[in-house]
């Protein structure tokens, strides 16, 4: 791109429902593809309530904004000085400008700042099509392309992530397409376009290019083009026009997601190997974090399980004594004895569950940093080599590789380095010693299977990234992070929980004694015993 200067911006707001108030505004001046000068970032205090669901995303509360936020008119005057009339770009321009900033400026009587440039999200969707990350969510792309973590869901963090995405991922693709000027890039991002992978209907997930050889899919696209809905008809007509054009070796050169009309096995294997390596990396990150969370929970369980067990045992006593009394009053003492048997069974089940939980907690190994790194490296290597996905069409080979992968994952989950080392040294011997068959290192050659495998691997990468994001939102993950950063924090949490448990136990004990007295008064004894 040429040396045109423009502004990349992002906002954090009070939510999606109008009226929408900006709580954080961030921007970075760009010259061509490069950031120029310091970024702009301000918090805004607009005396507006922040719904809890919005605060959970970006972390800003009324108290923070009262303390650190500036008056909106003052912030926008500073922003106008920063923009200096340059065009504005955002990673969802229609939201940040059309739904947030323009309505807010109109409400405040602020003159429009800058002018609309291109939408960075739409540019990414076009250049990456079909998107190997599965979707174009900013944080998914950041993780998929291994860009630095900049502070998700803060305006400045997201702006910096878009700068990384533009420079490291999108720029090479744009330049390979000959998009050298601001005008060319803007026109490309704004041009009519629809995703290669159909997003809905009976052919959801199919590539529209397959209609060149699939008459049923072509018929469906013709039906779309004839729809009374303008947008649907536009989509169908666009797809048909692309199909009528000469076929290309790839839908979008440079995305590294090839759609071959005459594929080579070797080329697909290179892509599959890269996908396997990336899947191993993201899975290793996820399982490492999950293991750390489980270790923290195991420590907490060890501190509290006796009190939890006592509370649950008393809860069982209360529940079944209440049930026993109800049966005695309704049908008599003899029939109520079945409640005593039910109680004994429930009590034994609960004892078994606690014993199993204690055994699992004791088995969680808190590895050192060196051991953790070795475990991650070994697991990534092994899962790349022996993943059963390559033999999905060969039941015998699939069984052996599935068993080996199960052993690898089990060792990873329990932090068993010795077992991983044993597998790495002699995987075939490991299976044979346990009577689980042998390995065959041949590889599938059938092209349609390889293409399906590549799609499957990429879906697994995205699913793992999503699982990692969900894990990091779990309160247990936050507990692990705080316990790691603050010595003694876990013990403090345990004391707080212990105080609550002791109050519950005292209350349940009183209820249990009262019920015991009622049973004694009615039938002279019996009933569920502690």
Description:
The protein has 530 residues and is of the alpha/beta class. It contains 19 helices and 6 strands. It has helices spanning 52-58, 62-68, 72-83, 93-108, 120-128, 138-144, 155-176, 182-190, 215-225, 230-244, 265-331, 333-363, 369-386, 395-414, 417-425, 427-433, 447-473, 475-485, 489-523; strands at 5-13, 22-31, 34-35, 40-43, 87-90, 115-119. Strands 1, 2, 3, 4, 5 and 6 form a 6-stranded mixed sheet that branches. Helix 5 (120-128) packs across helix 7 (155-176) and helix 14 (395-414) runs antiparallel to helix 15. The longest helix is centred in the middle third of the chain and has 67 residues, at 265-331. It is globular and about 90 Å long. Residues 248-264 and 440-445 have low confidence and may be disordered.
Structure keywords:
single chain; 530 residues; alpha/beta; 6-stranded mixed beta sheet; globular
- Overall, the morphology is globular
> Helicity, in percent?
55-70%
Helix count, DSSP H or I runs of 4 or more residues: 19
* Terminal residue distance: 78 Å
Structural class: alpha/beta
Total number of beta strands? 6
Low-confidence region ranges: 248-264, 440-445
H/E element order? EEEEHHHEHEHHHHHHHHHHHHHHH
Strand percentage lies at: 5-15%
- The radius of gyration computed from the alpha-carbon positions, rounded to a whole number of angstroms, is 30 Å
Mean pLDDT: 81
Major sheet characteristics? 6 strands, mixed
